[in-house]
Each structure stands twice: as C-alpha cells, then as structure tokens.
Amino acid sequence: MARVFIDDRWLKTAEDGTPPSASATKALANAKDPMRAKVPKKWRTSLYGTGKRWRCRWYVLDDDGTKQQKSRAFDMLGDAEEFAAALEDDVRRGRYIDPDGGDKMFSKVADLWIDTKIDVKESTLLRYKRELRVYIKPKWGDKMLREITRGDLQRWVNSLTVGNYPAELPNERSPRPLAARSIRNIVKVVMAGILDYAVENKWILDNPARSVKLPKAVVKDDDMVFLTIGEVEAIAKAATSIGRDMDGLLVRFQAAVGTRINEALALQVQDLNLKKGTARIRRTWTRNLDNKRELGTPKNGEARTVAIPDFLIEPLQKQVAGCKKDDFVFRAPRGGAIDDGNWRTRIWSKVMDNLGMKDEGVTIHSLRHTYASIAIANGADVKTLQKQLGHATATMTLDIYAALWPDKLDSVAHAVSQAWQEHNAKPKNEQGTEDEIDQPKKAEAETKKAEAKKTGKGKTDKPPVELEQAA
C-alpha cells in the first residue's frame, strides 16, 4: 500500500463529462440539509445526502496474499485529508496498522501462526498445538484481537497459578495449578508468539502479552531433587533386582553422565568411544505430529560429546560386547529400543515403591539434576557443565543450577588479602618504590659535587679523615 484515495460519495461527474460546478459545490458545502442544496440531479450520486460524504480508500494484502480494499468515511474533507496524510506517512515509516486488523478472530490468527512453525522440531510443534488446544483457545479462541488486553491476560495468568481457568483437559479432568515454567511456555512462548505474529502483520499495534508478569520460577522446585551417591546406588541396585543389570547401569549412567533419559535410550554402540571415555549424543527419542516415537536431534538441535567416568567403562564394555555398531546401548530384552514410558512403569515406579521414595518427588530427571550437583560440588565450571548437559547457553545452566555453586566471597577476599601481604613483605629495593623516588635527588647531588670540585667551591679547613685519625 502506497497511496490513499479520497472519494466524494455525494457528487459525481455528469454523464456528459462535466464535473460539478463551483456554485453547486459551494451550495452543498453551505447547506445544513444537503437535500435542500441547489445541486442538479446530474451531479448527484445514488448515495447523495446519506452517510458521511468523504471516504478514504486504500489497498492492503490479505492473509492469502490477495489485494483487499480498506476504507474509512468522514464528514469533513479536511478530516479525510488529514487521515490520508497520516496514513501514508505511517506506511513510509513502517508504522502502518490495519484499522480493521483488531477485528480478526484470535483462533484464526493462532492457526495461521501454527502454519508458520516449519522451523521447529515436530515434538516442539506438538507441544505448541497441545497448549493451544488445552489452555489457550478455551479462553481466547472466540475473542477478537482488539478484545485481548494486558489486564485480562494478567488475570488469566493469575488463574493459571491457582487452577481456576477454562481448559480442554482429557478424561474430564479438573484444572489444577500449573508450575511457573509451564505458565511461561503457555503465555510467553505460545500466546505471545501468536500476538507477535499479529503485530508483524500490522493487525495490532503492540503485544500485550510481553508485559504480563509471570510467577517467579523457584530454582529448587518439585522436580529439582538432588540425590546422594548412596541413594543413586540404592536405586540402581533395586532396578537391577526388578529388571536386569542393564536397568541398574542405565540409572548409574544417567546420574554419572547427566544425559536426558531419551538421549541415553537413543545411544548406539557406534556412539561410544570407551577408550577415550566419551559418548557422542547425536540423537534422542521424540514425538512426531502423530504422537508416535521417532529419532530426532537433541533438544537444542546440536550433537555433543560427553565424558564418561572411569567406573562405568567396564560395565559398558560388557553391555555392548558382541553387539553391532547400530545396536542400541540400552536395549529391550529382544534387542529393540526401549520406550521411556514403558520403562517408567515397568522399572522406575516399582523401584520408587520398594524404596519408599514414591512421594518424595524423585523422577528419572532427578538423576540428571544429581549429576549436575555432584559435578558442581567437585569443581565443574559453568561452561563445562553446559556442554556436558547440552544446554543451549551457559546462562540457562546458571539459571537452573546457580544456587549449587558455593559462595566463594570469603575465599576471594582471603586471596586478595594474601596478595597484598606478599607485596608489602617484599624488600624496598625489590619494590623499587624508594629507589625510584630518590634517584632524581641523588643525581642532582652528584652533579653539584662535580661542579664544586671543578671550581674549588665547597672546600673546608677540616683535615682529611686519615690525617685526623692519625693526629
């Protein structure tokens, strides 16, 4: 869109090609009632005297790429000209907003946004669709964009935290309070993503979801359980007893390497380099749009190499002995892949029951958190931990595990104090301070002494030291 046209809805050019005369135009402008103005019928349109006289008209591209006409009517020509000038200026400056864009239904815009998500993993797209279907559309689906305000969004966020919200839950399940991270994904990722899309298409001016306040995510919430090595060993032994040696090895691998469960279950023999003590994490089990399991890239889309501790090398060698390179390291009794959901039911849940840990919030993911806590306690820095865990950034690692790093303020203060003491304990000539300060004075004295010797000035009647002593 580059131009706004202004139309006179009441007057037209006559069939013989003559435009409205100046007298007719002036008569219409001065008349309180247009029907009584002295305007010949040949210049009157079919809409003469009805509605607003002046119309601004322009064209925009619709959702499907077709050109669509937009318009707005005004009583006064000056108002129409002012609107046209402002609109054309907004277009030139990239500030144009479709006056009718706010009337678009949110559900339609959400579907258009989903169609643009061709650059995300299928499992991520599946999660977007689920959150849209379960939590967002029941609340906002039948609203127009202009009806969605920051205040209403904030009240919705508050209802998500207490469990009082409309939802399309399976098996007629009642809504319950959502965790802070779940609310963030629903509001700041999906809902805000849809409204960002509306802003990009000039349907609304700004995104009210971006300024909504969310509940603060607690660093150590329900799924942030850290186990001791003794507790990990107890779980591993119970898993071996209920299942096989491999089940206990999988528990130890999770807690000592820190992979996600579906990354470990996707490991193949060819991914291990037991001589170097490393494993290449290049795939993970994920869900496609049909909610079926398939192999895909790791969570952040990048493969990584992780370190395997020495005590796991021998058990892993036994586990893969005689296997083909494309066999899974952790595999079902018949050699196929293990379904993590099935393993939870068949092994993990029974282990938790047997050890009395069912109600302590211990999940399979707790093994990954446990690895992080052990690594940090033994000196791991944030960048190394990020690479091992496969986080997208070191900031993400810090956000999750910042509280686990020990407070080193006292040790830093001690180190600075020690450096100061060592400096002050040095001999003055090593420090160079006094020598450097006295050098100019010594040089000046030597110069004066030499000059006095040449001129004979500065002599005294006092005998030399040797003669004085001899006397």
TrEMBL record:
Biological source species: Bifidobacterium platyrrhinorum
- Ranges for domain Core-binding (CB): 104-198
Bias (Basic and acidic residues): 438-465
Kinase among keywords? no
Location of the region described as Disordered in the Swiss-Prot/TrEMBL record: 420-471
A GO BP term, please? DNA integration
State the SUPFAM superfamilies in the record.
DNA breaking-rejoining enzymes
Q: Which domain of life is it from?
A: Bacteria
- GO molecular function (one): DNA binding
Annotated family: Belongs to the 'phage' integrase family.
Q: What is this protein called?
A: Tyrosine-type recombinase/integrase
The answer to keyword DNA-binding applying to this record is: yes
The alphabetical list of record keywords is:
DNA integration, DNA recombination, DNA-binding
Q: What are the residue boundaries of the Tyr recombinase domain, all occurrences included?
A: 222-414
